[in-house]
Design goal:
This protein is mainly β and 206 residues long. Helix content is 14%, strand content 44%. The protein is built from three helices and 17 strands.
Length: 206
Amino acid sequence: MKLLQLIAIGAIALSPIAASAAGLDALAVSSDGNTIFVAGESRSIIQLNSDLEVTKRQWLGARVKQLALVNDESTLLVFDDSKSVRLFDAKTLKQTSIFEKVEKFSYTNGHDKFAVQQGSYSASSVNVISLADGSTVSTVPVPKEFRLDALALDAGSGEIWLVSKSVKNEEEKVSYNDIPKDLKGLEKENYKQMHDGYGNSILCYS
């Protein structure tokens, strides 16, 4: 409850920062609530203490999309809109590693690895990266005909899930006149999507 209150107060207290940044998009808070990291359109990482005083500011030059404290909170994981995943020392905000040309990215809180598709949207593999030393732990293939749309790394099992873009399948699209007349609103839209002649493929690597 105390932490929720801290965040709520922070949202108000940080309004001058939010105004200058035109919005804050990412947040990471230490387990003791004494260190807070925020980032957004300012293209900077801002570090605050429990009194909501700015203690450090690190310019990135890119808008941050995701923040997470990892490696026993010694490292700050950053994913930004320059298609980069970066690792920073959480105390000094000094960058220690960078992974560029990241098309798809997945990290789950509490896990010691993250997954990336690098190079281009048609890259033929997904790499699992160790947060401990930045090394590639494993690589899974993306089939040539599989147009990757999203990926997810399961924190518990370590499984990697790949979801393809929608492609035309063998199912015939249901015409408007064949849609059940009793369906209205959202139910009708769901039915149309379920019978539009397109589908997604899912791959799971364990």
